[in-house]
Amino acid sequence: MLLLALDTATPAVTVALHDGTDVIASSSQVDARRHGELLLPAVDRVLTEARLRLDAVTGIVAGIGPGPYTGLRVGLMTADTFGLALGVPVHGVCTLDGLAYAADLEQPFVVATDARRKEVYWARYADSRTRLTDPAVDRPADIAEQVAGLPAVGAGALLYPDTFPKAHEPEHVSAAALASLAAERLAAGEELPAPRPLYLRRPDAQVPKNYKVVTPK
User: Fold this and answer.
1) Protein fold of 3-95+172-188
2) Which of 18, 59, 78, 95 is the most exposed place for a label (fewest CB within 10 A)?
3) What value, to the nearest 5°, has the Cα angle with vertex 103 and ends 99 and 106?
4) Through-space distance between the first and last CA atoms of the chain, rounded to whole angstroms
5) What is the pLDDT of residues 146-197, one digit of tens each?
6) Any idea where the Gcp-like domain is (predicted)?
7) What is the pTM for the complete model shown?
8) Residue range 104-168, CATH number
């Protein structure tokens, strides 16, 4: 097994290689405006570090969000393209699950990432491997009662200490955690879902209402 994992659902552009036992190379850069520019060089960097070629990869792991439309689609389209070119399966893993796995907590907690518009993408977990609720997007104040008293991880939790007073790192997802989680699930015989994006809301850019359609005479 050689899994190439990547995620662009948060401001982090993160890539990792996992050989079925351990992460053998990884790269993460935080820049919310340069996903498309940074992703492929990061893939090249981890392959070079591992002294492997892309055609050695046996599977792709893609973070499926939730996340902003523009950033998320960069990673998913890249993952699909690699899968088609190499003829290997592409596995989807929830980005929040990757953060939860990296938190390594054996108690109930919350993962929350920054959804902008003064909202967070979030879910509750029983432990680092067990999600209790579907990913959702809400204003922090609206979920305060549901998360009261629980530890929290992720950039969204760190942004809103009034709602998440027990917030701590990791701030952003790492492809190393995604790859390790995917490898663990695959080894257990679990079938991972196809990489379908979790957008949860419409993109910021929308077609204006009542616009004029100009056609040549």
Assistant:
1) Nucleotidyltransferase; domain 5 (3.30.420)
2) 78
3) 125
4) 60
5) 999 999 999 999 999 999 999 999 999 999 999 999 999 999 999 999 999 9
6) 32-145
7) 0.90
8) 3.30.420.40
